[in-house]
Amino acid sequence: MKQPTSSENAKSYQWGENAKGWWLVDHPHLSVVEEVAPPGNAEIRHLHHQSRQYLYVIEGEATVSIEHDEFVLHAGEGLEIPPKTYHQFRNESNKNVRYLVISSPKSTNDRKSFDW
User: Fold this and answer.
1) Residue numbers of the domain that contains 51
2) pLDDT of residue 95
3) CB atoms inside a 10 Å sphere around CB 17
4) 1 CB-near residues (< 8 Å, 6+ apart)
5) In a domain, 3, yes or no
6) Cβ 88 vs Cβ 64: under 8 Å
7) Does 88 fall in a domain?
8) Which residue, among 58, 44, 52, has the nearest Cα to 87 in the 3D structure?
9) pLDDT truncated to tens, each residue of the chain (116 aa)?
10) pTM for this structure?
11) Is the residue at 2 inside a domain?
12) Minimal CB count within 10 Å: which of 6, 46, 62, 107?
């Protein structure tokens, strides 16, 4: 029988400096990840060749760069990132940010990183 998933029982991983994520849905065609990033954490600028992503902030404030535009997302706000679009998530605030990353198809092995 299928059980509800949460950060309490999902498979977890670390990224960046002290950021953590949980695979809430881990399917080749769809992934839903909950992540918590402490102040100062940032991912490397990158793109996904096939995956379309949606970032949704649950708590805190996130800065997201998409191509040459920059957005500050607050709790209850999200942003779609089309495939083949350079982007970067950053926590420039002084509090943790908790957010969802929804990807279709799953973004694992579909990433190309770039330096600014």
Assistant:
1) 11-113
2) 98
3) 10
4) none
5) no
6) yes
7) yes
8) 44
9) 588 999 999 999 998 879 999 999 999 999 999 999 999 999 999 999 999 999 999 999 999 999 999 999 999 999 999 999 999 999 999 999 999 999 999 888 887 887 54
10) 0.91
11) no
12) 6
CATH of the domain at 27: 2.60.120.10
For residue 84 the two structure tokens come to: 């083949």
What tokens does 64 get? 């997201």
Distance (Å, rounded) from C-alpha 98 to C-alpha 38? 9
* Number of domains present in the structure of the chain: 1
In a domain, 51, yes or no: yes
* pLDDT score at 112: 85
